[in-house]
Amino acid sequence: MDLEEFLSENGIPPSPSQHDHSPHPPGLQPAASTAPSVMDLSSRASAPLHPGIPSPNCMQSPIRPGQLLPANRNTPSPIDPDTIQVPVGYEPDPADLALSSIPGQEMFDPRKRKFSEEELKPQPMIKKARKVFIPDDLKQDDKYWARRRKNNMAAKRSRDARRLKENQIAIRASFLEKENSALRQEVADLRKELGKCKNILAKYEARHGPL
């Protein structure tokens, strides 16, 4: 006879150890443990508190110095220095402009006319050639007077071209002096504004840390 059948026939309850190991009745289920497991805690810690707010791990870090900027960043396009217009209160004398302009052509504009380094080189002093005495009998020749008229016209054209160029350089230099003064004033204003911006940035970084 089995031990369990003997105990049940004599009305003796089984031992506590056997009672603990006995299966649960089919109608009753064991109560679920309310303590969360380690896996549940790790998953809850990684999940955001609110569904609309991303977790701190998903937030992008700011761009550090030396890090390449994204390709789609809006950067200003380079500026051609020749296209910059500086407001200069300069009005040359119309008579001086007339002396600096070629007759029948466009009026000389000191704002647009630029001279090369070769044109601005100092010209050496040219000594006049020694006069050659011409006998009176040769002055009666038509070739002599034709050659002399041609030489005089060429010398006059050379003097006029040199005087025209000197006048243009003088007016251009006067305009550049005015423009240089205006640019210096603009640089002084920009440096003053830059100093204010640096002071504001220094106060911000002292309070909130470097950018």
Protein described:
GO terms for molecular function: DNA-binding transcription factor activity, RNA polymerase II-specific; RNA polymerase II cis-regulatory region sequence-specific DNA binding. Residues 1-110 are annotated as: Disordered. Belongs to the bZIP family. PAR subfamily. It is found in: Nucleus. Residues 173-207 form a coiled coil. The structure is a single chain. The chain is an all-alpha fold. It has a domain at 89-115 and 136-210. 47% of the residues lie in helices and 0% in strands. It is built from six helices and no strands. It has helices spanning 3-9, 16-21, 38-46, 94-99, 136-139, 142-208. The longest helix has 67 residues, at 142-208. The two termini are 88 Å apart. The model is unreliable at 17-62 (pLDDT under 50).
What's the short story on this structure?
The protein has helices at residues 3-9, 16-21, 38-46, 94-99, 136-139, 142-208. Helices cover 47% and strands 0% of the residues.
